[in-house]
Amino acid sequence: MSTKQTSLESFLRKKKRLSEETEMSSTSKKRVTFNRQYHESYLKYGFVGTGDFHKPKPLCIVCSNQFSNEAMKPSKLLRHLNAKHPGVKDKSLEYFERKKREHEGQKKFMRATTLIKENALRTSYLVANRIAKAKIQFTIGEELILPATKDICRELLGEAAVEKIAHVPLSADTVTRRIEEIAEDIEAQLFERINA
Ligand SMILES: [Zn+2]
């Protein structure tokens, strides 16, 4: 493995770690001793439990609003249902179960979309790095690499693969930005090594 590849890997790892740390700090900042728990019976008020398992938050499946853990109380949940959704307050449990399944389907879809976007972003950095190493025009990403990769995928893997590839940002502007970002990071890594 070349030094450049190692530097890029460490850059991508750093990016991933940073985004994970931001996520963690937002979910587990303060641990309170008492957290309200979700109970299955809350579904009849139109609520599911989301977020941190130890400190779940009630989420209304009618309006998709999420409330704090402190609001996880039958009286508060019922008050929301009666005040905000009088049209469905007398609906059967089956109605809310169906709504819950719809909500879960949406969540799954969102998670899959987020994963595709993350992988596409990573791909964009990897390809930009190759373009920089090859010392060719940055337009090659949008003019040749992307369309050619789409052809290969369409013929060998099918339309689903082509759709995923469409998420990889490779315009000349993007490639320029990626390369600048990678170069800045490599420079910083070099300084760190020199000063170590
Ligand atoms: Zn609501």
From TrEMBL:
Domain of life from the UniProt record: Eukaryota
Protein source organism: Trichonephila inaurata madagascariensis
Disordered as annotated region, ranges: 1-27
Name this protein carries in UniProt: SCAN domain-containing protein 3
